[in-house]
From TrEMBL:
Belongs to the metallo-dependent hydrolases superfamily. Hydantoinase/dihydropyrimidinase family. This is Dihydropyrimidinase. The modification N6-carboxylysine is found at residue 156. GO terms for biological process: pyrimidine nucleobase catabolic process. NCBIfam families: D-hydantoinase. It comes from Pelobates cultripes.
Length: 498
């Protein structure tokens, strides 16, 4: 397994633009050569993996995880070890997690804290978004330092979680302005936090204390309204925007319409929203219903997942994450008498690649190239690590999955590699199975057996001003500024104001 030279022979190499049958030669963590029937002079210490009839795809990039996040009195049970171990077992070779400072505390300290948690544990490469949960000159200065020196080119603002993470419109305006100046992409959790707080009180007053109250207090329009507001504010300062976890048809429509109007906005549906729905909140068994609690909630309209998948296939939505933030039943039970106390979060990091293949490709909604686009390439472009990540090409990192599109597996908490005791996709039969996962040039998963090593993954710094996001933005700054109308001065009478 420790061989640093690998030849993947005869597979169909799938990138986001085309597919071809080719061999892929890997050495010291990088792809060194691609081509049909590669002939290598030196065969010593070379591992050959036969991939005929299989697909060879870039390892998945999960744009949205929360490993070991301290939240709602407890912390997410999957840490950076179990979480990334599960990721590679499912064909994901990179995650982007969130460093989240408390209101009033330093962004750089949060970044350092998360690095300290992740670095010794990660089994695959990772990077960090940083959250902006309050505003001051110090926050602004730290955003600049993070972008310039720490490889952070994405900052997330919460429009919900009142009193904990939520910021108001003027703070969004300031944060978006700062993102624009430093070449970062602004991310938002788009829900109206004031309406949620009032809605929650109302549900409790009606005697609704179970998980269904979680959806009822924050219906679709609460998400759609905040999505529209964030787009409006970002557009007013010509800042690119990335809407995390798009959960509803109406929020997705807002994003699709904005893209048609030429706004630079990207939407991220997640595995949960593409693979299951909010009818689970009405499940008779409390623990089942509570296991699905996340914010924004899954939507009870059962046609939502297919709708989101269609938009993803047609580039109205751009990438897939998971918002993986797992709590076991005994943790969820903190809210057994009050849905507002149920820790928010679901699994997904292990199953995203299979769920998107099953619901997207096997169903005929998207092809294998679009699949690669939405599971890795576009994320790599937006967050500025392309083609190091998200592409099988000479010189790219050797993050590769040998994928069997015909094989099936049944998802279950009994067999998954995550620490959490529940799986929201329980019983789902998925076509599309990772046979071998190569992360950083090493085989870390093979035919059901993990060889993942904690600390093997690296932190991936990301430079600001990603071309994919910023070329249009900067050009607009050049040519789209309003200009005053040239006029002769008005010389007539002006009334006197007393
Ligand atoms: Zn999240």
């Amino acid at each position: 397994m420790a061989s640093n030279r690998i030849l993947v022979k005869g597979g169909k190499v799938v990138n986001d633009d085309f597919s071809e049958v080719a061999d892929v030669y890997i050495e010291d963590g990088l792809i060194k050569e691609i081509g049909p029937n590669l002939q290598l002079d030196n065969l010593t210490n070379l591992r050959i993996i036969h991939a005929a009839g299989k697909l060879v795809i870039p390892g998945g990039i999960d744009t949205h995880t929360h490993m070991q996040l301290p939240f709602m009195g407890t912390h997410a049970i999957d840490d950076f070890y179990s979480g990334t171990k599960a990721a590679v077992a499912g064909g994901t070779t990179m995650i982007i997690d969130f460093a989240i400072p408390r209101k009033g505390s330093s962004l750089i300290e949060a970044y350092n804290t998360w690095r300290g948690w992740a670095d010794p544990k990660v089994c695959c490469d990772y990077s960090l978004h940083v959250a902006v949960t309050w505003w001051s000159d110090k926050v602004k200065e730290e955003m600049g330092i993070l972008a310039r020196d720490k490889g952070v080119n994405s900052f997330k603002m919460f429009m919900a979680y009142k009193d904990l993470y939520m910021v108001h419109d003027i703070e969004l305006y300031q944060a978006f302005t700062c993102c624009k100046n430093i070449g970062a992409i602004a991310q938002v959790h788009a829900e109206n936090g004031d309406l949620i707080a009032e809605g929650a009180k109302k549900m409790l007053s009606l005697g609704i204390t179970g998980p269904e109250g979680h959806e009822l207090c924050r219906p679709e329009e609460v998400e759609a309204e905040a999505t529209q507001r964030a787009i409006t504010i970002a557009n007013s300062v010509n800042c690119p925007l990335f809407v995390v976890h798009v959960m509803s048809k109406s929020a997705a429509k807002v994003i699709a319409n904005a893209r048609r109007e030429g706004k630079v906005v990207f939407g991220e549906p997640i595995a949960a929203g593409l693979g299951t729905d909010g009818t689970n909140y009405w499940h008779k068994e409390w623990s089942h219903a509570a296991a699905h609690v996340m914010g924004p909630p899954l939507r009870p309209d059962p046609s939502t997942p297919k709708y989101l998948m269609n938009l993803l296939a047609n580039d109205d939505l751009s990438v897939t994450g998971t918002d993986n933030c797992t709590f076991s039943t005994c943790q969820k039970a903190l809210g057994k008498d009050d849905f507002t106390k149920i820790p928010n979060g679901v699994n997904g990091v292990e199953d995203r690649m299979s769920v998107v293949w099953e619901k997207g490709v096997h169903s005929g909604i998207m092809d294998e190239n679009r699949y690669v686009a939405v599971t890795s390439s576009i994320a790599a472009r937006i967050f500025n690590m392309y083609p190091q990540k998200g592409r099988i090409a000479k010189g790219s990192d050797a993050d590769i999955v040998i994928w069997d599109p015909e094989a099936t597996r049944t998802i279950s908490a009994k067999t998954h590699h995550q620490a959490v005791n529940f799986n929201i996709f329980e019983g789902m039969v998925c076509h599309g199975v990772p046979l071998v996962t190569i992360a950083g040039g090493r085989v870390v998963y093979e035919n059901g057996v993990l060889h993942a090593v904690p600390g093997h993954g690296k932190y991936i710094p990301r430079k600001p001003f990603s071309d994919y996001v910023y070329r249009r933005i900067l050009q607009r700054d050049e040519v789209c500024q309003p200009v005053p109308v040239e006029r002769k001065p008005y010389t007539g009478e002006v009334i006197k104001i007393m």
